[in-house]
Queue: 2 jobs
Job 1
Amino acid sequence: QSALTQPASVSGSPGQSITISCTGTSSDIGGYNYVSWYQQHPGKVPRLMIYEVTNRPSGVSNRFSGSKSGNTASLTISGLQAEDEADYYCSSYTRSTTRVFGGGTKLTVL
Amino acid sequence: EEQLLESGGGLVQPGGSLRLSCAASGFSFKSYVMGWVRQAPGKGLEYVSHIDTGGSTYYAESVKGRLTISRDNSMNTLSLQMNSLRAEDTAIYYCAKLQYFAFHVWGQGTMVTVSS
């Protein structure tokens, strides 16, 4: 199972919106609505931000939203804040019932 | 509060073995799928394995045949038996609770270093 493809880095200014893409195949992202997104600050434990493509766990800001089209999922962060600077990972359920992660995207808040 | 606490990490020689444990509290352990995710130093997250509530097990191709996941519902404990370890297995190993096909709750992680 190959890793999902994410851009290595994205950046934005405070208050702006950014979108991180995550591209897979019909055997993972395209075949199921089971995409999740994780935020990880340096030296910290990953935190679930989005599950089942669009759902936010309790406690996650509504500035975070998810979507999917075909084999590509996206995470959008609106009203960018300094605390959003972190690494972001996508993940998907796969045809073999395992999971696969993306390579990660480093978000820089300018 | 839902908590996961890993233990058992350490330094091991190539070809050696190690057993990781994860103690769960604050939720009905037997009712949830549980899994392991690892992160090599300076690298991204990598799915390792998961076990469902019926005891069926699933593995990444990179660890199949070498790592074995198990659970003890009476002790609320998840385990990962790691054999034939390689340098590329060096990573922080996170225990996680799965819900709605995502990793909802994470432990603090335990470091495994494979080196001579």
Job 2
Amino acid sequence: DTGVSQNPRHKITKRGQNVTFRCDPISEHNRLYWYRQTLGQGPEFLTYFQNEAQLEKSRLLSDRFSAERPKGSFSTLEIQRTEQGDSAMYLCASQGSPDTQYFGPGTRLTVL
Amino acid sequence: KNEVEQSPQNLTAQEGEFITINCSYSVGISALHWLQQHPGGGIVSLFMLSSGKKKHGRLIATINIQEKHSSLHITASHPRDSAVYICAVPLTGGGADGLTFGKGTHLIIQP
């Protein structure tokens, strides 16, 4: 069990560019969550998957954001046409049973 | 949707002091999480509890379901306990929900 991993750990991009982040959950965890954390704030829920099905999306997830978990294992979060307000830490967590969520190290996005 | 309030927002204490961090939430829940976040962003789950009390080393977490309140205590605090402590509960109360988080308590333990 190697824990939840996220790549890249840091991403700097220019406004208007597209970015994609990857999350590899703990193997056999069927639930995977994405959160966003801005400086000085607690994380905020974005979306979650049960296996490959995306079951819930926060209203924070605008049309520029899309998340996938095609085979029920790793997940990707894509942001299109990035804006400076998208700068944040993007956290992934996975959950098996019992209901403890295990967090990855996060991807820190900076949009210039 | 659940709302989470944590207090205090900031806490500075001397090494060895007993620390208490409080968390209140608005909607009945299946379980509450206490998390620790060090500078650099990594989040570690400390406790998940649905009733009573749990202890792990110098950390103790309690929850009162009727009052919708939880506390995290640190005994014999040490500078390495310096971190942000975050309380989190399911968005709508259920176990499979995404979590909603408090703003965190920034704890500094001075030697």
